[in-house]
Write the structure tokens for this entry.
Amino acid sequence: MRIPLSILLSLVCLTGCSQKEKKNTLPVLPQGYDISRIQKIKLSEDLEEISGIFYDTAGPRIIAENDEEGKLFALDPQTGKILIHTTFKEAGDFEDLIRIGNYWYVMRSNGNIFKVNGAFTDSVKAEVFKLHLPGFNNFETIFYNASVQKAYLICKQCESDSGKRISIYAFDPKTSTYDDKPVMAMIPDRSMLPIEDSVSIIKPAAAAIHPITGEWYIMASVNRLLIVADNTGKWKKVYPLDKEWFKQPEGMCFAPNGDLYVSNEARSGTPNIIHVPWTGK
């Protein structure tokens, strides 16, 4: 059966329009971000399993770590090009990193923290500090809370939480010790969650404190959610993350001016960093 030319042209137009509309879909993010200027920065295959990222003002540059390797990569924040890399440890399940003073602190999935000295030099070395908790515990998030001068580790899945709360542990960089008990626990406000996530366990994968508003931004990769909370961990608002832009978000950081950077693992594609400018309006 022959299909009239007019129908074929209509189908082509509908398909093209649909694809164009999908391509131009923009995510919904907190007020103050200029979504119209969102940028996707492609990364090297060396960063297929990019996990944590941190904005280093010394460059400026973004420091990234690869999930399965004890390496740090310095990236150009505009192009994503690898400027230099350093090896501090053999292969391991490394999830996130922060900088405090002259040292880099890289967290393993079990909560152990590696203090890296001399990164990006010929004399790099690392010292490990172990977190001793009973049962199964999995961490993907560490951020520095300057108000208490401690690093906070957020449980992705800790046995004592039983999925009902999200415990936060503290590490003191001055004494290189952990607090014995959680410094606080976030209680998920399920009324803010999309229907499909209303009974799910929320699994934080990255977090950072917004340098302008002081709010906590907590990203759950598995749930593909961005949670904005106050400085007590109380939720203020939740944003579903568009999978076109956030296919597997694992790392997050801010530039001092509030610009947001989110890293995505390759996931059968190309790893990238999403950059969204902050305007405050």
